Please model this.
Amino acid sequence: ASPAETQLALAREARRLSGLEEVALAFDARPLKPFGRYQRPYWLTLCKREELDALLNRYAILPEGAEPAAEPPVLAEVTTSGQALFAAATALGSHAHTAVFVDLRANNSVLAIVLQGQGVATTTIPTGSLQFHAALADAGDRLATPTDRPGGRRDLFRPDAALELYHAALRQWTGEIRRALTEWVEDNPECGLSPTAFPVFLGGVGATQPGLLDFLNTLGPLRFESWEDRATAAHPWPMADYLVPYGAALIALGRAPQSASLLPPPERAPLRQRRTIATLQSINVLLLALTLTLLAFGFSQKRDLVDRKKELTARAQTALQTAVAIDKLYRQVNLDYAEIQPVLERQRQTLETLQSLAAVRAARTNEDFWYVLFADAPSYASGTTGVLVAESPAGRPDPVTNAPVASPPREFIVEICAPHEGERLRRILSDLVAHLKSEVLFQRVDTLPPERSRDRVPPNVAISNRVFGIAMEIAGNPLPPPAVPPPPPPPASDSRRPPTARPAAQPRANR
Model:
């Protein structure tokens, strides 16, 4: 059937069950899960509209002494005791998927049958704890009332003729529970259950009597258990006296499975609005929590970046200080080297001169010739003796502060006198050049070209026109000159300012 047809069928069934016209009837229905032979079962709750209006007028009025402009109390829900008991049983007794829940009240008892975790039947037994105590009063035993302390109570379940009426009332009440359960089992044989398959959980103000459960378990096949001991064992508060109010609160707050509601449609709009606002607020809280989580994560990342930047800045400062110290040391080394370079050049010059002279003296041949001159190339070209090194006059400062240091000679000239001619003379020169080339000291050895020859030999030691020269170039690289250091880096405090140009530092002049 369509939803409209289903609603009409439910309305007809409600009118048939109540015998009231539609205007005098209030009802609501909610679908259930399939069970037994029912494929599309519905739960139907109905009442007289005048009773519902009286209930609404009772609670939806201003309290005494309230201002006329004050808003009236807002009704959250109108439901039945059976529906509230279902809600409490589902919330607190999820382990009991198939059971009977009994709320023993003062004037009556509410019985709810739960099958496969959903309520399928409920009824009210017109017997409560006050009828039990009335039976005690008729028997002349007035020792126990619902307000007595546990320490002041007597044993009401001992074999005693005076307590027989009290025990008979309990047996009658138990029989009514067994009959209601048996009728439902007979109406639903497809479920394949028997009354003994349903554990009976007892709660309510009348269920706290000591010894009551043990006595009820001796009256028949039904097994009674304490709702407070079983259903609320995981909760730190006693719920046995407040099961129905607790279930009604769950329904009103939307924390229970969908249940039938007798709240009029005009009253449901504010409730839906409040629930929508509550849902939006919950979403806002979740978004706020998510935002705070993202902010915390971003803050953590930013803090890590700041710490990393601080670490890198500290490393950069340390590296800059190290670079400044290295630059100072570099400049000092260059200055020291500039001071000792002339000494090193003189030492190398002396060593090369002595080694070149020894190499020349070591040359041997069977031909007749003799050495008439040994000189370095600059002295040979200028006709002076000794190395040309410019020195400042004593007592006067050097006017040139950046004059380069005079380079020592890297080439030596040796002249021989040979009284031979022709092929013999060429052999003498060739043998002497070959011998000098074999020395590792020299990089290049060759006869001196005529354009470089100078007449430096006195006539009394050589034969005229029989003097021949040989040029010998020293192998190896000369000592490097003092390096011109780069400009020093800016100080650490000015690392953010652009560097400014400054003149390059010059090495100190040698004296």
Summary: The CA atoms of residues 193 and 345 lie 120 Å apart. Residues 141-152, 387-407, 501-511 have pLDDT under 50 and may be disordered. The longest strand covers residues 118-125. The chain has eleven helices and eleven strands.
